Amino acid sequence: MRLDFRKRLLVSTLLLGVATPVYAQTVAPVETPADPAAPADGDTIVVTGSRLGGDSLKQASPISVVSAKEIALSGQINVESVLKDLPQLIPSTTGASNNPGGGVATADLRGLGSTRTLVLVNNRRYVAYDANQIVDLNTIPAALIERVDIVTGGRSAVYGSDAIAGVVNFVMKKDFSGVQANANYRINEAGDGGNFNGNLLLGGNFEDGRGNATIYFDYTKRNGILQSARDYSKQAQVDDGEGGLIAGGSGSIEGTRFAIGGVNRKFETDGSYTPYDSTTDAYNYAPSNYLQVPQERFLMSAQTHYEVSPALNVYAEGQFINNRVKNKLAPTPYTGSVEIDADSSFLSPASQALLKGLDTDGDGYVTSTIYRRLTEVGDRVSSLDNTAYRAVLGANGDIGGGWNYDAYYSYSRTKSIETQIGNVSNSRVLQALRTSYDASGNLVCSDTSNGCVPLNIYGAGNISAAAAAFITIPVQNTSTISEQVASASISNRNLFDLGAGPVGIVFGTEYRREHGSYNPDFALSSGDVVGFNAGEGLSGGYDVKEAYTEVAVPLLANIPFIKKLEVNGAYRYSYYSTAAKSVNTYSGGVVWSLIDDISLRGQYSRAVRAPTVSDLYSGSAQDFPAATDPCTTAIALTNTNLNASCVATGVPAALIGTAYDGGSTQIQTVNGGNPALREETSDTYTAGIVLQPRFLPGFSFTADYYKIKIANYISTVGTTNLIRACYGDADNGYTPYDSSYCASLPRDSNSYAITDAANTLANTGGVTTRGVDFEARYGMPLNFGAFGSATSKVDFRISGTRLIAFDYNPLAAIPDLTINCAGKFGQTCGNPYAKWRLSARTTYSTGPVTVSVLYRYLSPVKDDDSGTVYAVEKIKAYNYFDLTTSFDVKPGFTWTVGVNNIFNKQPPILGDNQEQANTYPSTYDPYGRAFFVSTNIKF
């Protein structure tokens, strides 16, 4: 279940500004001068999960922290590859996402969808890459990251809409002085997928340290990898129906499959026909697809601040990013009802005789549904050129009496231009298929306009170059998303003291405007294009006016069993220009420190997610999700309920239980936006414990229980769930849950396959998830060392999540469709929701050398469809190990080498229940062992 149901329109992003640089690469961390606000190594980290700040271990909401050092040790070029190893995040779109894909990388806390995870940079909203208002992690350079704070649980009262699952906040370095250059290169053991990053950071202080200016340049180039480069992905795999996997693919084949009256046949190269067999004749679409999407990115970031006086500090930031990516798919599969010329000279005498016998009205043409892979046209390639920028201008300062203010204005805009090749014009295909003979006996188009050339689809490789050129249609679309934010707040962290510590309070107001557009060219918007999914344009936006407050009140301190007792609360009122109108969010929490060693904490939050521009205004678009027509399965022959439903929905009794759909594992679907959508609401409860025993210095342990319940869930129902609603499932004996949903599953009149399933956005059912997060850290100095050092240090960190339940109900009206995705994967749940996710790092440092080992664990998962027995019903547990060694060659020069996936663990291979590339490539490493090297020079 991809809880953020991704569209085909995918663009990268650029960001201009935010209160300091950005993040996303794996270079060595930037060193900054000592700053009283910045903790020294080993000190507690002051987090920004609350506008009032505080120690990460003493917040009411659970907070995880990833340091710049850990990012550097990972050896990863993009931050997406670092964050996906965190137990709280479920992999979403990554560099392995080709279809759907788009070259972007997104964050998905708890597996609730990337639209429900708010990504911030220095506590400010960042630029989105498309009308779904999601941040592309590729646009944030890792060299500038001070740390990453992951705040789980609803935080809408503090940060506004979208923070239902939580917040990923990138805190950037500032006041850098000097020059730093970094280069990083990684390559797979197979010798492919080379990934280079180089960056340069320049900065300096002025006016005796009252001001600073920093500029940063970053270049990344990632080579693509085709699925043909790996044995396990070069051939599409499908279930053989007997518990094994066999070579499979698409029912749209090079030689043309054609269906008349539910009988499937195929054309041979000489124009003759033979019966179609899905087990041997399916087209292998896998080799042409990318396993790793190629990318080229240039980023520039600048920032400055100047303290005019304690009451006035002005700051400005700006970023520019150009990100270019490609997606590649197999040649266009043309499907649809056409008129075939029964006496075409392209056909053999036997084929002519067959068609003439089926020409019931005697007009010389036979209506047939064809499934043709247009290999003569070439692969489908989508080239995305994304340009984004963001600017921030603001001021803050001390206005006396302990009061401080911060006010800023930001503007960001992303423009994406997508150019597609490999598409064909539907109208021209139909024109070129309808043929007749001229006076000289030559086969010509009946309509010769536009230079029409007859199209010979009757056998593989038979389409002439002239005919391919006639039907080919290059297309282009442009999309933009812009955001304006005006924000002002005043705060006092020492308002008064009740005897247990200073009371802190924040008041603020914010105005935000979002606007997006998608402008396909005429062919795409008219629906005439076949290849990449066609879609209508969109243009729309909304604004929201908000006022908020937050308070933290220490109540008691230093009495028996109460070292400190503090409560906090937050409230935000929002008024949307959309149907959501007035929205209230709020939270309350408590931290109770029994003694210095032990603290208990708890939090309740009401959060919201307003519909995005895309949710509200996107036009109709095609999609091809994985789904199985139940009437093609063997159970449809023996189960009387299912058999009756199949007959009632138009499948001839003689075809039930056969592969009349060509053995396809995808169903053509139509989706789109809905301007009447209301906001989602969520209730989040967390309760936890923090241990910092004084008898074990350097050790800390946290464990937090969470429960998140989302109502008015914005989503498509999903083609698989529409099928379950219409036909029932094994759990209820295939009794329809609600037969009215069958109207959303129309069937083709010739092949009887489900075509154009209606799957538009709505406020559907809901999600309830429960689990426990835990983390332990321990740093221990040692009285021995090496490489000229008499001492050393070892650091341990283990983080984990135990997923107790993930109950997903796609239709509020049918609660029986609820499925618990904990420990499952498949066509409903999507990416694996492992019950146990662990990440552990051990680092040993002595003198100039640091050695670090990262261990990652995913527990076993089972398929989510109890009514279908797949060849692979269970994916076993996975263990990954990474090794990094860093050398301080001399002051200012660091060299790092490492290997990811040391034991070359291969991904699980699946058939009908896969995501893409015969596996789940965003969850399980699809590339194998990889090596990396980086250098960092500072002077």
Keywords:
939 residues; mainly beta; 22-stranded antiparallel β-barrel; five-stranded mixed beta sheet; 12 helices; 45% strand; disordered N terminus
Short description:
This protein has 939 residues and is mostly beta strands. Helix content is 8%, strand content 45%.
Task: Report on this structure.
The chain contains 12 helices and 50 strands. It is 8% helix and 45% strand. The strands form 10 sheets. The chain has a 22-stranded antiparallel β-barrel. Strand 2 and strand 3 form a beta hairpin. By secondary structure, the chain is mainly β.
Helix percentage range: under 10%
Based on helices, strands and strand pairing, what is the structural class? Answer: mainly beta
**Rg from C-alpha positions?**
30 Å
Q: Sheet with the most strands? A: 22 strands, antiparallel, barrel
| Average pLDDT for all residues | 86
Distance between the termini: 50 Å
Q: Using DSSP, what is the number of strands?
A: 50
Model regions low in confidence, pLDDT < 50 over at least 5 residues: 1-48
Residues in β-strands, percent: 35-45%
Oligomer: single chain
Number of helices: 12
So what's the overall shape?
globular
Which helices and strands appear, and what pairs or packs with what?
Blueprint: E1 63-67, H1 68-74, H2 79-83, E2 117-121, E3 124-125, E4 145-152, H3 156-159, E5 166-172, E6 178-188, E7 195-206, E8 211-222, E9 225-226, E10 237-239, E11 245-247, E12 257-260, E13 263-267, E14 273-275, H4 278-281, E15 290-292, E16 295-309, E17 312-329, E18 333-341, H5 349-358, E19 365-373, E20 380-400, E21 403-421, E22 424-425, H6 426-433, E23 435-437, E24 443-445, H7 465-471, E25 475-492, E26 504-520, H8 522-526, E27 529-530, E28 538-559, E29 562-576, E30 582-595, E31 598-609, H9 613-617, E32 621-623, H10 635-638, H11 640-648, E33 669-671, E34 680-691, E35 699-711, E36 714-715, H12 719-727, E37 757-758, E38 762-763, E39 766-782, E40 792-809, E41 819-820, E42 824-826, E43 830-833, E44 836-846, E45 849-858, E46 861-863, E47 874-875, E48 878-890, E49 893-900, E50 930-938
Parallel strand pairs: 2-5, 33-37, 42-46
Antiparallel strand pairs: 1-4, 2-3, 4-5, 6-7, 6-50, 7-8, 8-16, 9-15, 10-11, 12-13, 12-19, 13-14, 16-17, 17-20, 18-19, 20-21, 21-25, 22-27, 23-24, 25-26, 26-28, 28-29, 29-30, 30-31, 31-34, 32-33, 34-35, 35-39, 36-38, 39-40, 40-41, 40-44, 42-43, 44-45, 45-48, 46-47, 48-49, 49-50
